[in-house]
Write a structure and sequence with these properties.
Length: 373
């Protein structure tokens, strides 16, 4: 499989591995962001320990739904906030906003947000518990940030019904890590759910955009206006997509919308991700088809071992966290899920790279609504 050349710093095989595999580490814009994010300690009482420093007017919960998902009426936040005020969108739409952005912009205009109001944005199937709601209150009263996001786990509904559709690591890496580190989202990447926004900031940015990734657009505009972001160490729970087609169409919309902003850093990371697929193919060729062993320096073997270990750790640890949070899953199943997530982490990465290429070449023409339980 390989031969060690301890006397050399570079070999022809090492150059090939570097050219084909190294760019793939930039696919997340911050190399190894997932494992760094997973290793950052939780600080669930960060805001609760602080004195109250600001008051607020109203806290509004904005939940955009078609009314077809049963989980909307079953979540703790739904029960706590009854009776609901159901607002139906009128025929006239805002100047630019389409799809979900249109609903969000109509909501903003309809409720006439004040500077000291806050809006908690949720997807229709998002479930919050009492701890998360209290964490939101602590963020508002004791924090000094304008926008807060929390961890989203996809462990309700059809969780593990199809193991290839389980999502584990994104929130710990590209969302949580940069917000905890710099109080800013990575290139504007923000949630579409479990995101808490100050009314003054929401009025300043608005949702009047033709982008199909309105959350990313909002994050970019908020950063430009100097908004400060914070991370709420609480959990919201969502349902994973039901089918591969739903997953592909969901990611295709995300990737196409983010690509359309023209950010050089984002586009470089996308191209590196797509290029990294060649590194995956080269690894498979070297393991199963190559007739002669690779000749590699010692440092390349050490780097490869580190790269594999961090990938396995990130996927396995996040899978275990989701299973423990879901409850009712036996120890054997938790370990099996962690093993599956770790083994297939490269497969997930390669699939997302292919979907990015598909989204760039064939942008979606509408807003695909993902089917969930």
């Amino acid at each position: 499989m390989f031969e060690l050349d301890a006397s050399a710093w570079w070999t022809l095989d090492a150059w090939w591995i570097f050219v084909l595999s190294a760019p793939g580490h930039l696919r997340d814009s911050i190399p190894f962001a997932y494992v760094f994010g997973a290793c950052m300690p939780l600080d669930p009482y960060k805001y609760a320990k602080k004195p109250k420093r600001r008051t607020f007017g109203l806290i509004r919960v904005c939940l955009v739904t078609r009314g077809t998902n049963a989980a909307v009426s079953q979540s703790d936040v739904s029960i706590a906030l009854r009776p609901f005020e159901i607002v139906r969108l009128p025929t006239p739409s805002p100047r630019l906003a389409l799809y979900k952005a249109r609903a969000l912009e109509f909501f903003r205009r309809n409720v006439r947000l004040e500077e000291d109001d806050w809006v908690l944005h949720l997807d229709e199937e998002t479930q919050l518990d009492s701890y998360a709601i209290n964490a939101v209150l602590d963020f508002i009263e004791r924090g000094d940030e304008h926008i807060g996001m929390g961890t989203v786990l996809f462990n309700t509904g059809a969780y593990w019904r199809n193991p290839f559709l389980v999502q584990t690591v994104a929130d710990w890496g590209m969302f949580r890590f940069p917000v905890r580190l710099w109080q800013l989202p990575l290139c504007g990447l923000t949630h579409g759910t479990f995101i808490l926004i100050n009314g003054g900031i929401e009025n300043a940015v608005t949702w009047d955009t033709s982008s199909v990734t309105e959350d990313f657009w909002f994050g970019c505009q908020a950063v430009r206006l100097g908004a400060k972001f914070g991370w709420i160490d609480a959990v919201a729970r969502e349902q994973p997509p039901m089918t591969f087609l739903d997953l592909i169409n969901q990611r295709r919309r995300w990737f196409s919308g983010i690509w359309s902003f023209g950010s050089a850093w984002i586009r470089i990371s996308y191209m590196c991700h797509i290029w990294g697929i060649l590194g995956n193919l080269n690894s498979l060729y070297s393991i199963f088809l190559r007739p002669t062993p690779l000749v590699l320096p010692l440092w390349v073997l050490r780097w490869t071992a580190f790269d594999i270990a961090q990938s396995l750790f990130g996927s396995a640890s996040c899978s275990i966290i989701q299973d423990l949070d879901a409850g009712g899953i036996g120890t054997g199943a938790i370990l099996l899920h962690a093993l599956f997530s770790a083994v297939f982490s490269s497969f997930y990465t390669a699939c997302e790279g292919l979907i990015k290429a598909y989204a760039i070449l064939y942008p979606p023409k509408g807003f695909h609504v993902v089917k969930k339980v």
